[in-house]
Amino acid sequence: MTTEQAVRDATARWMRRRRRLIGYGQWKPFVDAEPVRQHVLAIRDAGMSLKNLTAVTGVSSSTLDHLIYGGTGYPPAVRIRTESATTLLAYWPTLDDYVDGAVIDATGTRRRLQALSATGWPATSIHQRIDFVNVKTIENARYNQQVTARLARAVRDLYERACGSKAESHGITPGLATRCRNHAARSGWLGPEVWDDDTIDDPTASPEFTGCCGTDRGYWTHKLQKLPMCPPCAAAHQQWIDDQVDVDPAVRNQRMFAARAAAGTRGVDIAHDARELMRLGCDYEQAAARLGITRQHLQQELKRHPEKAAA
Hints:
By secondary structure, the protein is mostly helical. Helix content is 59%, strand content 4%. It is globular. The protein starts with a helix and ends in a 7-residue tail after the last helix.
């Protein structure tokens, strides 16, 4: 859903509610301003100016100024019109809403640049596609906490093109790509297969190494495939151990061996079944849907379990 559609939907819901409450004699034209003020401050801290917020939401600049700053001799607003509150609380900026020079959180940009490095994209090759910044800026952005919205959008678009096409060299020399991948591995940078497109920008999101991270099966998949252990899987396994405290040791060990064995074969089975589906004409999305997993999980398993050539 686009930002404009979200705002229109919120306004329509507010109008329907307003008419209904007026009919019941329960209409309250003003609400507490504090939750709205904190939401607007969070949007501003994310890199959007109040001027731009007015442009995308339609809430007047005077309303926002009164909400945040108050007036001459007056404190910030204690109440705000219900319509304005509903519109503002329904809005959160997307990457495309920011002006080019806005300084925003770099989580998604940092992850994308590191993932590009892990797949063999050196900073010089990225610079050839994003030439409005120098190579040093691109190298630094792999570590930075903040970037400009213009750079974030350019990196996002390049990432979508580069990681969405299979076996395409993009003109990068093999030697350069190999050195870049080795550097990424030494740095602990993660490839695109562990990130979901819907959560890669979320600072609270964890990489999805196994397709079942956050479960005990995920823990054993990490162990068996020698993948970096993620906190959700470590926590899930510890919870499993805690839940088995009162269980007979022999039974507990039997359960643990069964869990380990199940995790050991699942990836192989997924890769085998997916290749059979693809031979029948399914693409990545269709095969993943048939197997009940995400596209990213499917790509992970195909990469970890390559097809063996016939003898």
